[in-house]
Amino acid sequence: MSKVSNVWVFSDSDSRLPEVIAGGLQLGEKVSVFVVGSEEAVTLAYALGAEKVYFIEKEESRLIESYADTMAAVIAGEGGRSLIMMPGTRCCKGLASLLGVRLGAGVMTDVSELSSEDGKVHGKRMVLGGLAIGAERVQSAVSIAVIAGGTYSPAEPDTSRTGEAVKLDYIEPAVSVRCTERRPREGSRVDLARARRVVGIGRGIARQEDIAMVEDFCSVIDAELGCSRPIAEGEKWMEHERYIGISGVMPKPDLYMALGISGQIQHMVGANGSQSIVAVNKDKNAPIFQYADYGIVGDLYKVVPALVKAFKSNQD
Known about the structure:
single chain; alpha/beta; seven-stranded parallel sheet; five-stranded parallel sheet; 28% helix; elongated; FAD
């Protein structure tokens, strides 16, 4: 596999930066990072292995997409064969589309595998609802890849690596959207892609109030709570950030425990990256058992309290 001359990295979340930089270090001869408004992120980028960091001052009224012209000017000025990498957040997907227009670059989204061969960037991603893997090749000199969570193991910071950021002047877009008000979002923030243990709930949960029982179990085993699509988008009992599936999060934990989840392909595509899968379902013919490493045929309303009791007694 050949390496790309220049890899450019941006993340609107510091927590996703180590993963994307790790991918950049694998694919590029030189990794440069754009940072918007956080001196701490500049330090982190150098510690993670960035060769150069470009700093853009942040203004609260600007959306992330508004920085496309500023970034595009630097990338175009560098010239040569380039790859731009970003995590699969909503803001980064919007930014990627604008950069694609500004730079005449091919854009790949939800990429789970990247390589550089024969002077071109190749990517793979799930298609047809997770039933197949699509292979794509970008023909343009500049390629843009929006990375699915868990594609790369996060780079470990080395605080001995330091450097000064190159400060960029902000380029105002010809047409821009400005934020006039920000309100706190209800619900907790979660990053399932970084969790070592994940517990997922599905239609087996009869009432929203019963989620507290599973939250108690999660606290006992130090796990994050996720869910299937009906819980997040049908019942709206949980945030979209906790939805595990082809159009949601695709975590790669050491342990994934599915409670009352039937195991449809759209969900299992998101969960199949787990090292071990444990399923609890009262239907012995549920598809989830075809994917599970371990299975319990039983009512989760009896199994979960029993597990909580067992784990708590061991802790005592």
